[in-house]
Amino acid sequence: MRPVLQATHIEKSFNVQNIRTRALIDVTVDICRAEFTLMIGPSGCGKSTLLAILSGMSSPDQGAVHVGSFNLSELTDEQRDLFRLKYCGFIFQGFNLFPALTALEQVQVPLDYMNIPEDEARERALLALDHVGLSKRKHLRPAEMSGGEKQRVAIARAIVKRPVILFADEPTSALDSENGRNVIEILRATAKETGTAVLCVSHDMRLLSKADRVLQMEDGRLLRDERPNAVSQSTERDVP
Ligand SMILES: Nc1ncnc2c1ncn2[C@@H]1O[C@H](COP(=O)(O)OP(=O)(O)OP(=O)(O)O)[C@@H](O)[C@H]1O
């Protein structure tokens, strides 16, 4: 497995009212292309903090995150924003859709930010909606969609950029089991078919059997790093 992201000796603490919480303690981990990696662990063990650091949304107190030739700690805030825009996709538990936009418009938004010409953006957005099985629902606004459909639009919006890494934070927790399974199958297929590295944080133990790799966190440490199922590698994506 070729890692696309390497994080070494990550430390992160928070101080609140003179109480120091060590959220991450000496975490070293890499994330590989074409794999669906699941990060699990009890509430408060540091999963979201690690996801934020790996995606450049927050900085570690110590340690480094390398993605391709980028050392995230050496980038300015603006460079980090650009890095995320170009190479990372994000899916959140709350979908984060714009109420006024149709499914198609939601998916085109990141491509507009990337200055992709309108015609190409529309074509790519339609393909992404097709990938999540929603091409026939492209004119619907969030208020007209089910939770599962909204999450699939959010996935289409994340993958339309063709990200090298896709970060998903509790993507199934607001969904019933059937929609949850559907979303996980789409994330797995995205990893296999496009070579994207998918890192998914979840409490949902049903996902364990679907993961290529399981990272188990506890009390700020990475306790277990296993690949329970054999994996075949497909198309590979790189950060230059
Ligand atoms: N901004 C913050 N300020 C203070 N403490 C924080 C902050 N963010 C996280 N923490 C603390 O760091 C620890 C790790 O939190 P984190 O949110 O990463 O855990 P988690 O595993 O994602 O939890 P959950 O599964 O409940 O979302 C917790 O003790 C939390 O209270």
Automatic annotation (TrEMBL):
PROSITE patterns the record matches: ABC_TRANSPORTER_1, ABC_TRANSPORTER_2
Keyword vocabulary terms for this entry: ATP-binding, Nucleotide-binding, Transport
Keyword ATP-binding: yes
Superkingdom of source: Bacteria
Name of the protein this chain belongs to: ABC transporter ATP-binding protein
Signal peptide extent: none
UniProt lineage: Bacteria, Pseudomonadati, Pseudomonadota, Alphaproteobacteria, Hyphomicrobiales
Listed SUPFAM superfamilies: P-loop containing nucleoside triphosphate hydrolases
Keyword Nucleotide-binding set for record: yes
Boundaries of every ABC transporter domain copy: 5-239
SMART domains: AAA
Family statement drawn from the similarity comment of this UniProt entry: Belongs to the ABC transporter superfamily.
GO MF terms held by the record: ATP binding
